[in-house]
Amino acid sequence: MNFFPQIRSKARLLLVFLSLFSFVNKHLLSSIAADVKSNQVYIVHMGKRQHDEDIQLLKKTHHQVLATVLGSKEASADAMIYSYKHGFSGFAARLTATQAKTISELSGVVHVIPNQLYKVQTTRSWDYLRLSSHYPTEFVQKSKLGDGVIIGLIDTGIWPESDVFSDEGLGPIPSRWKGVCESGEQFSGEKHCNKKLIGARYFAKALEAEYGQTLPFNTTENPEYLSARDAIGHGTHTSTTAAGSLTTNKSYNGLGVGTVRGGAPQARLAMYKVCWNLDGGVCSGADILKAFDEAIHDGVDVISVSIAADMPPNPEFDAKNGIAVGAFHAVEKGIVVVCSAANTGPSAQTVQNASPWILTVAASTVDRSFPTLIALGNNWTTMGQAMFTGKDTGFVSLVYPEVSDLDYPRDCKGLAANSSAWAVGKVVLCFTSEFSHGPSIDDVAWSLRKTGILALIVAENPSRSLHSCPDNLPCVQVSYEIGMKILAYFRSTSSDAQVRISPTKTHDGRPVSTTLAYFSSRGPNSFSPAVLKPDIAAPGVNILAAVSPSELELKNAFAFMSGTSMATPHVSGIVALLKSLHWDWSPAAIKSAIVTTAWTTDPSGEPIFAEGEPMKLADAFDYGGGIVNFNRAADPGLVYDMGSEDYVKYLCAMGYNNSAISLLREHSTSCPSKTPSVLDINLPSITIPNLRNVTTITRTVKNVGAVDAQYKVVVDPPFGIQVSVQPDILKFNSTTNTISFSVSVFSTHKVTTGYYFGSLTWTDGVHEVRSPMSVRTVVTLSHDG
Ligand SMILES: *[C@@H]1O[C@H](CO)[C@@H](O)[C@H](O)[C@H]1NC(C)=O
Ligand SMILES: *[C@@H]1O[C@H](CO)[C@@H](O)[C@H](O)[C@H]1NC(C)=O
Ligand SMILES: *[C@@H]1O[C@H](CO)[C@@H](O)[C@H](O)[C@H]1NC(C)=O
Ligand SMILES: *[C@@H]1O[C@H](CO)[C@@H](O)[C@H](O)[C@H]1NC(C)=O
Ligand SMILES: *[C@@H]1O[C@H](CO)[C@@H](O)[C@H](O)[C@H]1NC(C)=O
Ligand SMILES: *[C@@H]1O[C@H](CO)[C@@H](O)[C@H](O)[C@H]1NC(C)=O
Ligand SMILES: *[C@@H]1O[C@H](CO)[C@@H](O)[C@H](O)[C@H]1NC(C)=O
């Protein structure tokens, strides 16, 4: 028998980690190279815009500042990329490091930070088109379906002809809308916008400046449109999920017949394209900041951002990067900002977009499977997972690559078209792992599709999301355990081993339990450990939605995609519904409603597991409050509210000085003389990263339910932690609408521990307002002990 030797596996594991580091290093090197490069894009912050400031004047000021350093008006015009005017005052420009430093010393300039690159957050390839549709999650809709709410997406653009963006039955565009529908390559402002897609713009100047004149995108392989048209499919997919119109009877060759629709099918969409077709979608921080600036001005209610910084995340930038800064200004204006947690799980501390004003979304699976029958010649049948709508193979030969390419012995990733003669007309069994090098299984299958190989049976970690393989070469996923059984059969058959693969059926509901996706980035929050991240989870695995078709002439294409990118617009759609129910709620109130009412078991009552090695019960660092539950979020009972003053308090607590804070707020902002504790920020969760002995924190709740209400506290303390709440009964009436309480947390541990999880819930018998609690005890030795 030939098992992978354990020691070998370890060596391979090490190699992979090393190669991950070398990947990281390459990126570090390229960013260092960018620094050395004479011109880089910098973002110059000049503080909060004053209400009475004239926009044209502001722009002129920006040019004057730049001209002071560059020496002339012409040089300034040449270097200027964007003027930011709505959220705050500032600009992006191409500068040398010396010029950037000089500008940072000018009066009126608050901060100069180098631009950063971002990536879209999908793990699956979106080039697998020609699919039809079915919507995987169900949450009951309130009647208005988000009517009147405007969702802005900062993404890769949109395919406007798709049926899911039809405006049939929609009322007029909200009169407060101030956005535009910008024409560009293959995109007509007049023709392509309607009452559903009410705005479309694109931002590429900073990325162009970053790459110089020769754009590395827009090649034959990576076509691109210099307009809001989506060449990648990612933005079309996220837009569909957030607010696609109802389109019935869509299916992918009969798989999963149903209705494709967004979370808020009556909400309006505005696309701000910032990511371009290079490396699956790359975006520049300065472009993103401009998109926020315009979206704030245009009048969107929700901003959905399925983008995160390229790895490694730079902690120095988290509160200052394009997304965090843009989001801060949007939230100050009452706009809810929903961002993806990133796809770098399941390792701890990988969550991004971790500022407390952002609603950060993790990805879960749905209770749906694609069972695909595998029958062996010995009459044994088993089930794999695939998306196979082709013909039943009938009984054919089964083969296994006993000796494959030397680099990837027996790994599916080592299968190559130019050495596949042995497998023609047969089904190939192979093993793979997320730690092995090589192309993705999808890429391998697509490269083999013309060889005459009939199917791959891919044995791997069962938690991986479905592959997108061609219909004439399906990839049927099985667990290692089933893979070993099939291998045992293969080796026991001296003659021809036989196998038969039947087309996939769709199976919704149990018996597939909900899990937190393997790739979904995890807490704790490495930027600010006392702020729980991610906030919430939503479906993000094998989500079917509209994408860009392969030809300009085509209208409709659908694809399955997975990623925190796909989870994010589910939450954005739900936020739109909540907005239409509660126009007066602040972004923090909406976030609180979502976090405190989430499902902590799956909708059928089964526990939620988190994928990883090993699989474990999901906790707050996997899914924040849990899995988003619209019906309960619509009527949460109590909310933990916050305003921009609270966020400033947070920045003070984080040790940002006044100058750093004025990056986000006006110059006059100053921290209180007694530094606030980050533990007291009024979050809907309690996270104590270093409990020494005992600590007391405060929270304030606001009653948003019936005026007269009485709540009592129920604590499920983390292991070894004692929790007492004062007062433990809250009585609301017509004059008392907000009440503060304190929580004393005491550790009985004698040693430093890892995190233990629990919860603090206020209940009036109807509502349950649950705050996840995460506590780590830290015992430090004193110098004299
Ligand atoms: C992409 O290439 C086409 C054809 O060469 C050109 O017309 C188009 O303007 C290019 N788009 C961008 C974004 O550069
Ligand atoms: C759904 O579509 C299929 C194939 O396009 C068609 O045969 C069927 O009649 C349609 N069903 C409904 C209810 O429209
Ligand atoms: C498989 O089952 C069929 C019918 O049930 C039977 O005729 C055949 O002998 C079985 N084959 C083996 C290898 O057990
Ligand atoms: C097969 O193709 C791969 C890349 O496509 C190449 O690296 C390899 O050398 C080729 N092998 C043979 C035997 O031609
Ligand atoms: C504020 O902090 C920044 C970076 O931490 C530092 O460069 C700057 O000098 C500080 N400013 C003041 C006024 O302390
Ligand atoms: C921990 O707190 C308790 C209660 O406040 C106190 O009695 C005890 O001395 C403290 N222990 C240490 C080691 O500080
Ligand atoms: C509401 O409750 C507060 C505190 O318990 C009390 O002082 C106040 O009189 C009550 N108001 C009314 C209208 O009952």
UniProtKB/TrEMBL annotation:
PROSITE patterns: SUBTILASE, SUBTILASE_SER
GO cellular component terms attached to this protein's record: extracellular region
Keyword Signal: yes
InterPro entries: Peptidase_S8/S53_dom (IPR000209), Peptidase_S8/S53_dom_sf (IPR036852), Peptidase_S8_Ser-AS (IPR023828), Peptidase_S8_subtilisin-rel (IPR015500), Peptidases_S8_3 (IPR034197), S8pro/Inhibitor_I9 (IPR010259), S8pro/Inhibitor_I9_sf (IPR037045), SBT (IPR045051)
Pfam families: fn3_6 (PF17766), Inhibitor_I9 (PF05922), Peptidase_S8 (PF00082)
Compartments, record wording: Secreted
Domain (Inhibitor I9) ranges: 41-120
GO molecular function annotations of the record: serine-type endopeptidase activity
Gene Ontology BP annotations: proteolysis; response to symbiotic bacterium
Residue ranges of every copy of the Subtilisin-like protease fibronectin type-III domain listed in the record: 680-775
Source organism, top-level taxon: Eukaryota
Residues at the active site: 155 (charge relay system), 234 (charge relay system), 565 (charge relay system)
Domain annotation Peptidase S8/S53: ranges: 146-602
Keywords: Hydrolase, Protease, Secreted, Serine protease, Signal
Location, primary (coarse class): secreted
Signal peptide residue numbers: 1-26
Family affiliation: Belongs to the peptidase S8 family.
Protein's name according to its UniProt entry: Subtilisin-like protease SBT3.10 isoform X1
Organism of this sequence: Ziziphus jujuba
